[in-house]
Task: structure prediction
Amino acid sequence: MKKIWIILLIGIMILGTTACTNQPSQGTGNQAAAQESNNASSDSTNAPSSEAMIPQELKSLEEKTEKAAKNAEQAKPAGTDKEQRMQFLELQQELEKVENELDRYEDNLEMQYAAGELSRDEYKIRDMALEQLENRLDHADDQLELNFGIDD
Result:
């Protein structure tokens, strides 16, 4: 009985695999390939560069992220324990403020994409840039905790 089930499952997998392949018919194969080639070349010449797709607001967020991250990474504990704790909390609040701005921008970006105001490529490029900024903030927060010896 087990052998029958195994053979049946293998047969279903083979049928599923062959049914899902996307091969053009022989008569239109060359035409389809030529059309794909033309589409690819026109997309690459008409598509704006990823730098052109990043708006000024995102560039401003990049600057804020970099400034807050550098402040956090370069901070050295100074003063009494209470003063060090206050210094740590101020720097952490600065990082959180930028992170909240990134979250708001990401929410807005998702709404624009859902409304069809952004193409898929524009959305992906901006979302990837946001992801990098969030990673930068996370790294800076980790370094801040390491500098102050506080595991938050």
About this structure: Residues 35 and 56 are 36 Å apart (CA to CA). The chain has five helices and no strands. Confidence is low (pLDDT under 50) at residues 24-30, 36-45.
